[in-house]
Amino acid sequence: MATTNNNVVVVMIPLPAQGHLQPLLELARRILSSSNFTIPVHYVGSATHLRQAQSRAHGWDPLTTPNLHFSEFQMPTLDNIPPDTNDFYPSNLIPSFYAAMEFRQPVADLVKNLSATDKVKRVVVIHDILMSWVVQDVVAIPNTEMYFFHAVSALDVCSRILEAKLNVDPVTPPADVAEILQELASMEPGSDSPPPLMVKYVEKQMSCAVNYSGLNIFSTCKPIDGIYLDLMQQAFKSYDEHWKTWGLGLFMNPLEMEKNIRKDTTSTLPRHHLLQWLDKQEPNSVMLVSFGSAASFTDEQIRELALGLEQSQQKFIWILKEADRANVFADENINRTTFALPEGYEERVEGRGMVERGWAPQLEVLGHASTGGYLCHCGWNSVMESISMGVPIAAWPLHTDHPRTALLLTKGLKIGIYVRDCARRNELVKAETIHNAVKTLMDSPEGENLRQKAAELKDAVKASFMDGGATKKDIESFMSYITR
């Protein structure tokens, strides 16, 4: 039985966006369950974003988890701006990032109080790298240790570091990796850039980040990103003597995930209608279509996507919902179904396609035996879920880390194909293009080969969490380091 370790306390500071909130909350759970000691974890944020993270936790209840504490800080009231369908980037969320900079003093006060607590030897501060400005005062507080959290792939971070030409040790990557890095270096300027207001925000964070130690936690693991984790470690050997990298994701243990999504014949709760429909389909016959919590399309693009799916004659589940706003719980954000599909569309695809206009159990859908492909925006959390369930991806990257993730999927891991690349992100993707990509992934020898590779990667990820596996070793190494 675990005993309480009053010597170490963990504080987590996420960026207030779904793709950053959730993995850091799952890391909190990992820390709470991965030590012989019970280490208190303090997860901070505004009331709205704490509730958002709590409500979207999968397979566990953060509010009833012992030693997980939520520290609520005040954030300026934000207008609940709708997403701009002409802007792939979720610009409507940027004001909440700037508002979260108000956490600077409350975070410093919290860490200072914990540091001064009797018997506390170390306060481990794990902050999203995009919240580095908020923790700038924490560095000087006694007994604190700073850790960067990266909610993107190691390829993304590694390639940006090498492109920045920092004074790091020269590295010679394998030929196939060198080819990927060269392709990234030659990427069309601006093809993955956020809007100017976000660029300024990132620059502000990075100006502070250079002052912290190089202890890095990644939402990835060795079977997926190992070569890039190793390249960073090699490159920084002399640049930063404190540099360490840990690949601790998937933060939801894939063994547990698989167990949780199995059909529970003893449950009295009704099974979600999407899962009931999947139960009636052939193995690997259905494509999931979902663009995450932050992507919006024009009505014209929605119509082309609808027609492309219809023309492909493949079975599909399409999660069609508006992207998140700053407050996902605001009344006007509930049950909006404003997307215009072609007249009679749902009747025409009945029995072959399901259009879901709200919340859906995405992980369970991906884990169902009937799901054989995933058309998505290449957001890192969605990609990790798909990999954990052995489902290949039709990549439709939109912005920032998406193009690099798409390249990792298609050229590195070889478990994906492009719908279209990010350099053409401002072009309308026509129904024929979508139709061809869907047919290739779902009904071709190439698609079958991708499914086989995705299944092999899933098995490798699962094995890495077992005793002696690379991820298990990284978890043990990290826990040993913070409790040393």
Structure explained in plain terms:
- It is an enzyme of class 2 (transferase).
- Residues 7-249 form the Glycosyltransferase N-terminal domain.
- This is Glycosyltransferase.
- The protein is built from 18 helices and 15 strands.
- The protein is globular and about 65 Å long.
- Helix 6 (175-185) runs antiparallel to helix 15.
- With 484 residues, the chain is an alpha/beta fold.
- Helix 15 (402-412) links the parallel strand 14 and strand 15.
- It has a seven-stranded parallel beta sheet, with helices on both faces. Strands 12-11-10-13-14-15 form a six-stranded parallel beta sheet, with helices on both faces.
- The chain has two domains: 7-252 and 467-483, Glycogen Phosphorylase B (Rossmann fold, 3-Layer(aba) Sandwich), CATH 3.40.50; 254-462, Glycogen Phosphorylase B (Rossmann fold, 3-Layer(aba) Sandwich), CATH 3.40.50.
